[in-house]
Amino acid sequence: MSCVGLEAAASAVEAQLGVTLPVAGAHAQMGTHNRLTGLGPEIYFELIAINPEAPGPNRPRWFNIDNFSGPPRLTNWILRCDDIDAALAALPGGFGTPMFLERNDLRWKMAVPEDGILPWGGWGPAIIEWQGAAHPTQTLPDSGLRLLRLSLHHPEAEAMAQVLGPLMAQDTIQFMPAEAPKLVAIFDGPNGEIRVG
Predict the structure, then answer these.
(1) How crowded is residue 164: how many other Cβ atoms within 10 Å of its Cβ?
(2) Of 89, 168, 86, 85, which Cα lies nearest the Cα of 125?
(3) What is the value of pTM for the model shown?
(4) What three-state secondary structure class fits 13?
(5) Residue 112 three-state SS
(6) How many alpha carbons lie under 13 Å from residue 7 in its C-beta half-sphere?
(7) pLDDT (tens digit, 9 = 90+) per residue, 34-49?
(8) 88: part of which helix (H) or strand (E)?
(9) In the sheet where 126-131 sits, what is the strand order?
(10) Radius of gyration of the chain (CA)
């Protein structure tokens, strides 16, 4: 999820989801910062925004966040792989070049497009490879919130499913043909079932 002002957006999202986003971090290479919470053993939720106190990068920021405006909303998803170079070789162009990033004991590579815009008009996934044994869900507090379904509504949904399907489990995301793109997540949590998007 992307947003303009991190703290105000975090308050709005916490109220909507009925959980807190207690962990904060920063990405020096991109001039962004975030708030996170765990969704179970392998999934986490991240709210990300431009960090007004950090110097801007000498390139467009990831997730096309330089052009983001309006209230906080679900805009992106990330696809984990074991070998980012092999994954990018199997995908069409436009997913970007791997960048090495680290924070505390976390090490990862993420493919970032030169213009910051992911394929399919920004609705394709960012590709990530976690390095070593450390993963955010090992230290994030468990919010009690669980992702039931993630669906991407897009005019090119069928083509996206064909291209991305070999890289992920069948239940990762549903691709739904639609005239207007949007990302929808269904959660189960303290406030019951919640639809975001």
Answers:
(1) 22
(2) 168
(3) 0.91
(4) helix
(5) strand
(6) 2
(7) 999 999 888 999 999 9
(8) helix 84-90
(9) 78-80, 126-131, 106-112, 97-103
(10) 16
Q: How would you classify the pairing of strands 32-38 and 44-50? A: antiparallel
Give the residue from 182, 146, 161 showing the smallest Cα distance to 74. 182
CB atoms within 10 A of CB 34: 19
Sequence-separated (6 or more) residues with CB below 8 Å from residue 41 = 137
Tens-digit pLDDT profile for residues 47-68? 999 999 999 999 999 999 999 9
46's tokens: 């991240």
How far is the C-alpha of 151 from the C-alpha of 197, rounded, in Å? 10
What confidence tens digit (pLDDT) does each residue in 136-158 have? 888 888 889 999 999 999 999 99
Please give the pLDDT value at position 4: 57
What backbone torsions phi and psi does residue 154 show, to the nearest 5 degrees? -160, 145
162 CB neighbour count, 10 Å cutoff: 11
Nearest partner of 112 among 70, 76, 82, judged by Cα: 76
Q: Which residues contact 15 (CB under 8 A, 6 or more apart)?
A: none
Tell me what pLDDT residue 42 has.
Answer: 85
Structure tokens at 105: 């004991």
Rounded distance, CA 120 to CA 118, Å? Answer: 7
